[in-house]
Write a structure and sequence with these properties.
By secondary structure, the protein is mainly β. Helices cover about 0% and strands about 35% of the residues. The chain binds FE2/S2 (inorganic) cluster. The site of FE2/S2 (inorganic) cluster (FES) has 9 residues, from loops. InterPro entries: Rieske_2Fe-2S, Rieske_2Fe-2S_sf, Sol_Rieske_ferrdox_dom.
């Protein structure tokens, strides 16, 4: 029988206020077609959508889409090291994806799945907005407490 603790998440405070994360909804890519019919993203001012933080030994990119949708995903692309925090957020097949700025491979923000190949996947973490001393902050949950020496009660 699986222990209940194996499903426990350990939550870490990123110390990032939700309002400090760029709302990607305001920077969704727009497309245009060249005279030869090639579809490309319209040039626009580059805005870094991902807020970066190193937490629990992991470099993460935190994204926001709208008022209340937040995502945490590993900052370094698992394909070849692109900086996912610098990518664009696009909706593909009704799924919000972060497109790596290096080779444009999209990763589903809710699962980390790569839409180009199923051989790689970005680490993705649950996010909660919590109040600490009356101040909102983004918390990220890490699974696998059963594999560590520490339990939530230790913190
Ligand atoms: S480095 Fe990210 S898609 Fe290649």
């Amino acid at each position: 029988m699986q222990s209940q603790r194996s499903n426990t998440l350990l939550w870490f405070d990123t110390c990032i206020h939700p309002d400090d994360v760029v709302d990607a909804k305001n920077y969704m890519p727009e497309y245009e077609y060249t005279v030869t019919g090639v579809k490309r993203i319209k040039k626009r001012e580059r805005v870094q959508l991902g807020s970066t933080v190193v937490i629990n030994g992991k470099a993460l990119a935190i994204f926001r889409h709208g008022d209340d949708r937040f995502f945490a995903i590993q900052q370094i692309c698992p394909h070849a090291g692109g900086n996912l925090a610098m990518g664009d957020i696009e909706e593909i097949d009704r799924m919000l994806c972060i497109s790596c700025p290096r080779h444009k491979w999209p990763f589903v923000l809710l699962s980390g799945d790569c839409l180009v190949t199923d051989t790689i996947r970005a680490e993705q973490y649950p996010v909660e907005i919590r109040l600490t001393n009356g101040i909102k902050s983004i918390f990220v949950g890490f699974p696998g407490l059963n594999q560590t020496l520490f339990y939530e009660a230790d913190f």
